[in-house]
Amino acid sequence: MGTHDHNTVTLRDATPRDSEAINRLCVEAYAEFRTIIGESNWRQLSKTLSGTSRLINEGQLIVAEDEAGPVGVVFYQSYSHPDNAGGSANSASMRTLAVSPSNRGRGIGRMLTQQCIDRARNEGAEEITLTTAEMMTVARPMYERMGFVKQKELGERFGVKHARYVLKLK
User: Starting at the edge strand that comes first in sequence, how are the strands of the sheet with 10-13 ordered?
Assistant: First the structure.
């Protein structure tokens, strides 16, 4: 139990003002994997993560915050978006789910994931997909508990095995 537990976490769409906080949060959230993937992979990954705020132009960046500021973020792409990675025309997707290390265990990752599911459902998407890595030992079981099923192994990225998961909405 952290000291933050009584604070209310609210969700909202990110604004350009959140850029720095989002980028920092993503790097912090993934830093635990640094030793697993090795230094050169980490350099690439952290560079990618530190540009997360740019995704605001490609879909919806959703921020979870409490009175201290942003504590989590996820990127959601509706199925109508032209470069949606899901492939099929009626598939929404989510990626880059990050929760700051000091705010873990508050259900923030679940709230953000649920928000993406709700948005996909409200838009009439037939499914929502996400990609997760073998090393994501907290996120992966959470996705599975929420009903996501492994659809396809995607090979290695940054030296780690990845797979696509899907949740059917219809």
Answer: 10-13, 60-66, 69-77, 91-99, 127-133, 160-168, 149-157
Q: In this structure, are strands 149-157 and 127-133 parallel, antiparallel, or unpaired?
A: unpaired
Pairing of the two strands 60-66 and 149-157: unpaired
Task: Please give the angle made by the CA atoms of 145, 33 and 50, to the nearest 5 degrees.
Answer: 100
pLDDT, tens digit, for every residue of 121-143?
999 999 999 999 888 888 889 99
Q: Which of 49, 5, 58, 6 is nearest to 27 (CA)?
A: 49
**Separation between Cα atoms, residue 76 and residue 95, nearest integer Å:** 7
Q: What is the pLDDT of residues 74-121, one digit of tens each?
A: 999 987 665 555 455 689 999 999 999 999 999 999 999 999 999 999
CA–CA distance, 140 with 147 (Å, rounded to integer): 11
Specify the amino acid at residue 118: D
Domain edges within the chain: 10-168
| Class for the domain spanning 10-168 | alpha beta
pLDDT confidence of 7, banded at 50, 70, 90? confident
Rounded distance between C-alpha atoms, residue 131 and residue 119, angstroms: 18
What does the pLDDT read at residue 89? 61
